[in-house]
Amino acid sequence: MLNNPASKYRAFAPIALRDRTWPDTQLTHAPRWLSTDLRDGNQALIEPMDLARKLRMFELLVRIGFKEIEVGFPAASQVEWDFVRQLIEEGRIPEDVTIQVMTPAREELIERTVQSLAGARRAIVHVYNAVAPVWREVVFGMSVAEVMALVEQHVRQVRTLTDARPETEWVLQYSPETFSLAELEVSLEACETAIAAWGPGRPIILNLPTTVEAATPNIFADQIEWMARRFADRPEVVLSVHPHNDRGTGTAAAELALMAGAQRVEGCLFGNGERTGNLDIVNVALNLYVQGVAPQLDFSDIDAIRAEAEHCNQLPVPARHPYAGDLVYTSFSGSHQDAIKKAFATRRAGDVWAIPYLPIDPQDLGRSYEAVIRVNSQSGKGGISYLLEAEYGVQLPRRLQIEFSQVVQRTMDVQGKELAGADLWRLLCDEYGLESTPDVLQRHIATREDAQGVAQTELRGSIQWQGRERVLQGCGNGPIDAFVNALGAATGHGIRVLDYQEHAIGGTGSVGGNARAAAYVELRVDEGQQVFGVGMDHDILSAALRAVTSGVLRATRSQARAAAPQEQDNPRQETVPAA
Q1: How far is Cα 373 from Cα 331, in angstroms, rounded to an integer?
Q2: Axis-axis angle for helices 381-392, 398-415 (nearest 10)
Q3: In contact, 258 and 287? CB cutoff 8 Å
Q4: pLDDT average, residue stretch 183-188
Q5: Which of 194, 210, 235, 428 gives the lowest tally of CB atoms within 10 Å of its CB?
Q6: E-assigned strands of 250-392?
Q7: Among 3.30.230.80, 3.40.50.2300, 3.30.160.270, 3.20.20.70, what is the CATH number of 441-562?
C-alpha cells in the first residue's frame, strides 16, 4: 500500500448545500421497496438462476410483501424472456404487485423488452444510460449534448411502443448511471430530458444509483436532497435510490437518502449483487422496525427466508450477517449472558424492548431464545462436527450442526461426561433414524413431458409408514420433488424442501468398507415445523429419499409430543430460564 495514497486517490468533493435539512429528519414510515434479486442479484451469481429457481425466488418475494419486483432483463437471454412470459401468461403476478424489467438505451433491446411485457396489467420499464464523466468520456466517448440526445431518443421510443399497448398501465423508470459519480447539473438535465420525452404529468421513477459507491453516505444524502428540492412540487415524479456496498456503507447511504427525500429503495435480500453487493433490504427494513416503524415487509420467519434465498442464489448468508446470521443472537461472553438473563427476569409482557446485547426480540423474526440462553450448547458444535467428519466422514451442514449440538447437549446434561466420536455417531443414528428409516419399496421412476412440453418425473412405489404399507404416487420436476409430493399425499403432511445437500463418504473407516452417499434435507412440514432429515445409502437417490423420510418422521414425532397431555399448564413465558 502507498504511504501517500493522496498521490493516487482523490477524496470526493463535498456538495455545496449549506442549508441541508436531512440531518434533523426522523424516519417515520417505510419507503416503497423494489427487489432486484431477480435482475441485479441474479446477474451477479456464479450460476444464474434457472426458471425453477427464478419462480421460487419470485414467490418468496411476494410472500415477504414486495409490491414492486424487478424480474429480469428480458432482452438479454432466452431464459430471461421466458421467465417474464411465464409470469404473465400463467397469471402468477398478484393484482397488487407490479413487475419491472430493465433495458439499456439501445433501440433493438428496448423494442424486445416492451414486447416481453405484452398482456401485463401494470409494468415498469427501466431504462438506463451512463452520464458520469468516466463512462461518457472514456467508455463511450460522448459529449454531454450527445448523452442528452440519446436519453431523449430512447425514452421517446419507449413512449411510442407503450402507447401502442394501452391495455397495460405503463410507468417509466429512468436511471442516470452512475448518478453518485456524475455532476449534479448533468444528472438533473438527464432526468428533465427523460421527463420531457416521456410526457409531462405521466408517472415516472427517477432512480439515482450509487452504481459504484465512492463517497461517504452524508455526501450521497446531500446529492439526494439537492435533487429532491428540484422535484418537490412534481407529484408524478418518484425519487428512488439504488445503493451498492463498495465502501461497506450501503445501508447508511440508503437510510440517509430516505432522510434526504428519497421515496423508494431498490436492493436485494441479504445484500446479494455485483462486487460487494447491492443494498441489503432486510437490513434497512429491520433497522426501521427496531426504530418503531413498520417496514411493510414480513420477516417473521427469517430462517426460512434465508434458506430460500440461499437455495435460489446458491450462496450462503454469513453467520454474522445482521438479523439473519446463525450467531447474531448468541453471546459467548459470560458477562453478556448474565446481563441478558437479568434483563429477561425483570421484563414483563408489553414492556418496551430493552434487553442488553439484543437490539431486536429474536422471536419477532421466528427465532427462539435457545441460542441466547444455552450458549454452551452452541459453543461445542465445532468439536462435534469435527469428530463426526474425522471418524465417520459425515459433513453436517451448518444449521444441522446447530440442531444436532442441542441433541448432544441434552445428553451431556444427563450423563455429565464427555462424549467420544462413537457416542456422537450413535446419537446421530438414533435422532435421525439412520438405521431405522424405511426405504421406498418397488420404486419406479419415469420421466415424461406434460401438455406444455415440460419434463416431469413420475415416482411410484410403496413405503412402510407407522405400521402399515402406504402406496406412493407423485409427479415433480425431479425424483426428489416427485417423492415429496407422493409422500405428502400418502401421509397427509404438507412437505416443502427448503435446502438440500449431499456428499460422498469414503470407502474406508468406521462407516463401512464400501463408499456411500450422505444426504441432508431441511424441510418445512405442515407449514409449521422446520426440521432436518438425514439419509445414507450406497445409492445417492436412495439416500436423498431416506433423508426426506427421516425429516417427516421427526416432524411427526414432534407433533405427537406436542399434542400429548402435559403434566401441568406451561404458558409461554418471555423470561429466560436459569442456566
Answers
A1: 9
A2: 100
A3: no
A4: 96
A5: 235
A6: 264-267
A7: 3.30.160.270
Is the pLDDT reported for residue 371 higher than 70? Answer: no
- Which residues belong to CATH 3.20.20.70 in the chain? 21-313
Q: Centre a 10 Å sphere on the Cβ of residue 18 and count the other Cβ atoms it contains.
A: 5
Alpha helix stretches (DSSP H) within 164-239:
184-198, 217-230
Q: How far, in whole angstroms, is CA 166 from its chain's centroid?
A: 34
| Alpha-carbon gap, residue 350 to 359, rounded angstroms | 16
According to DSSP, the β-strands at 495-505 and 516-525 are antiparallel
Distance CA 162, CA 120 (A): 12
In this structure, the dihedral spanned by the alpha carbons of residues 523, 312, 250 and 172, taken in order and rounded to 10 degrees, is -130
| DSSP string of 39-105, one letter each residue | IIIHHTSSS---HHHHHHHHHHHHHHT-SEEEEE-TTT-HHHHHHHHHHHHTT-S-TT-EEEEEEES
Tell me the pLDDT band of 228, cut-offs 50, 70 and 90. very high
**Start-end of CATH 3.30.160.270 domains in the chain:** 441-562
- For residue range 377-395, what is the model confidence (pLDDT) as tens digits? 333 566 677 778 878 999 9
Tell me the pLDDT band of 452, cut-offs 50, 70 and 90.
Answer: confident
Which CATH class for the 21-313 domain? alpha beta
pTM: 0.79
